[in-house]
Amino acid sequence: MEYYNNKINNLIEQLGALPGIGQKTAARLAFHIISMPKDAAARLAGSITDARENVRYCKTCCTLTDAEECPICKSAKRDHSTIMVVENSRDLAAYEKTGHYNGVYHVLHGVISPSRGIGPDDIKLKELISRLSGDVNEVIVATNPSVEGEATAMYISKLIKPIGVKVTRIASGVPVGGDLECIDEVTLLKALDYRVNM
Ligand code: ZN
Question: Which DSSP state fits 27?
Fold first, then answer.
């Protein structure tokens, strides 16, 4: 890519390192950014820095937030005795968008995956277990119905059962190999309604 100068190449390289962005898209985005008004480009750069600097894990559910505790954990209107375990904050958002789930969440930030070297200690499992000493009636495991998501669900179930808390798993309706954030609301709610004991 010697035909662009270094600064453009650098921008293309940085953008191309993002997930889902190929070289062509990276180049298109880079040229778009360069043609933006300077203040708009500065706002974009600023929001990246700001988000990176100030977004952190909620001290209770581990979702990404800009406060010590996220609005869901802080809310007195939510049922804090029901915890839905999701893989990431995007899956949390998918269930929140349905507007029909009133419990709270726990965000694992990944799934157990021996092939990718991700063990139980690499996701927010300890944090989940530490929440169960409180007043918790049910843990709904809503990891994706992928091989790794299912294996993680089984692991969580085995871990929690001895504590004496009910563990359920979201049911069919979610296609095998599916990705929760891409599934429509009706399917998500069906999966939640027909959850099964683990
Ligand atoms: Zn929270």
Answer: H
Contact 167, 137 (CB under 8 A): no
- C-alpha to C-alpha distances, 161 to 127, 168, 188, nearest whole angstrom: 16, 10, 25
- 83 pairs with which residues across the strands? 104, 139
The more confident residue out of 23 and 187 is: 23
Ligand 1: centre distance to CA 81 (Å): 14
Torsion 84-89-95-98 (CA) sign:
positive
Residue 54, C-beta contacts closer than 8 angstroms, at least 6 positions apart: 66
Q: What is the pLDDT of residues 75-103, one digit of tens each?
A: 999 999 999 999 999 999 999 998 989 99
CA of 196 to the centre of ligand 1 (A): 25
Q: What CA–CA distance (Å, rounded) separates 156 from 186?
A: 26
Those residues whose beta carbon sits under 5 angstroms from the ion ligand 1 are 58, 60-61, 70, 73
**Reported pTM:** 0.75
107 Cα to the center of ligand 1, angstroms: 9
176 — pLDDT class (breaks 50, 70, 90): low
Report the separation in Å between the CA atom of 21 and the middle of ligand 1, taken as the mean of its atom positions: 30
For residue 52, the SS3 value is: helix
Please state the φ and ψ torsions of residue 189, each to the nearest 5 degrees.
-70, -40
Interatomic CA distance for residues 63 and 154, integer angstroms: 22
Using alpha carbons only, what angle is made at residue 127 by residues 74 and 78, rounded to the nearest 5 degrees? Answer: 25
